[in-house]
Amino acid sequence: DALPPVLHLEHLTIDFEARRALVRGHKVRLTPKEYDLLRYLVSQANKPVPHRKLLQTIWGPDYGDELEYLRVFINHLRKKIEPDPSQPRYILTEPWVGYRFALPSQAQ
């Protein structure tokens, strides 16, 4: 999916060309997998992405049942980009399905 070169949200800026994220103007260091996960979730913004689809897209076709991998990476990503990781506003859990990146309609 086509992504804008830079996505500006209230507390978060993602520069897709530079593979960089800023939270409240401060650079956040993302691992390659964290970045790939964030990029994919944003590319599917506002749509629930099943666990299996995320695992196979980010880790490869041999993965799909390793939900703990996904939970750990989502937890790390939330700690890095969410204003309050215990009350996520960007990376939301879709119970029994997967995760969804909540993109406000006015953000571009």
Please give the structural blueprint.
Layout (H helix, E strand, L loop, with lengths): L5 E3 L3 E4 L4 E4 L2 E3 L3 H12 L5 E2 H8 L8 H15 L9 E4 L3 E4 L7
Antiparallel strand pairs: 1-2, 2-3, 3-4, 5-7, 6-7
Helix pairs in contact: 1-3
Question: What does this molecule look like?
Answer:
By secondary structure, the chain is α+β, with helices and mostly antiparallel strands. 32% of the residues lie in helices and 22% in strands. The protein contains three helices and seven strands, in the order E-E-E-E-H-E-H-H-E-E. The strands form two sheets. Strands 1-2-3-4 form a four-stranded antiparallel β-sheet, with no helix packed on it. Strand 6 and strand 7 (98-101) form a beta hairpin. The model has no long low-confidence stretch (mean pLDDT 91).
